[in-house]
Amino acid sequence: MAQINPSILSADFARLAQEAQAVRGADWLHVDVMDNHFVPNLTLGVPVVESLARATDTPLDCHLMIEQPDRWAPQYVEAGAGSVTFHVEAAAAPVRLAREIRAKGARASMALRPATPIEPYEDLLPELDMLLIMTVEPGFGGQAFLDIMLPKIRRTRELISKHGLELWLQVDGGVSAATIERCAEAGADVFVAGSAVYGAADPAEAVRALRAQAEAATATAAWACAH
């Protein structure tokens, strides 16, 4: 089943509790953590995640676009995140980190920037609960979707199927009504949407509409029909 994770990067930061409530029905709330080092932007950190976890029943999906995730990621689990994503380009010991995140009780996820291939990390996939393929360069919301990532999504889905894994495949960046069907057809089943949700007149309805699009595309996708 397709999952829609609205990104609070596109929400009103002065009204985060209300913005979290505005997307009731979403599967997860995607929280972008940026440190102005790994990416050229600065957003929020552990205290805001703690506050958000108290303000919403929707589980938090924290995407750490930061240096030294080995040091910081466990703190986001302790702050209340149900899923924590680290970038493999920044992690010193990705397997150890994934195991630590899981041991603390959260889902462990690994992200790849657009230029990072999936193939070198095939053996790591069983250590993960989710893999995130960035469909824009990380760091800023509102960027245009990179179609050149679709073959990478397909290759990743093939590797997941090859190993018989129950691994979620997430896409993040430029996901909208115009692009979500292509992502689903290629193999993604978790979709981060920022401005497509929070820029809509009714964010909750936007979530429902995007999920319906994704599920319709998945129903006829070759990778889903093969299951």
Task: Map the helices and strands.
Blueprint: E1 3-6, H1 16-21, E2 29-34, H2 46-55, E3 60-65, H3 69-78, E4 83-87, H4 94-103, E5 107-112, E6 130-134, H5 150-162, E7 168-172, H6 180-186, E8 190-193, H7 195-198, H8 203-219, H9 222-225
Parallel strand pairs: 1-8, 2-3, 3-4, 4-5, 5-6, 6-7, 7-8
Please tell me about this protein's structure.
This is Ribulose-phosphate 3-epimerase. One of its GO terms (cellular component) is cytoplasm. Its cofactor is Fe(2+); Mn(2+); a divalent metal cation; Co(2+). With 227 residues, the chain is an alpha/beta fold. The protein has helices at 16-21, 46-55, 69-78, 94-103, 150-162, 180-186, 195-198, 203-219, 222-225, and strands at residues 3-6, 29-34, 60-65, 83-87, 107-112, 130-134, 168-172, 190-193. The chain has a single domain, classed as Alpha-Beta Barrel (TIM Barrel). An 8-stranded parallel β-sheet has the order 1-8-7-6-5-4-3-2. Helix 5 links the parallel strand 6 (130-134) and strand 7 (168-172). Helix 3 (69-78) runs parallel beside helix 4 (94-103) and helix 6 packs parallel to helix 8. The longest helix is centred in the last third of the chain and has 17 residues, at 203-219. The chain is globular and about 45 Å long. The relative contact order is 0.16.
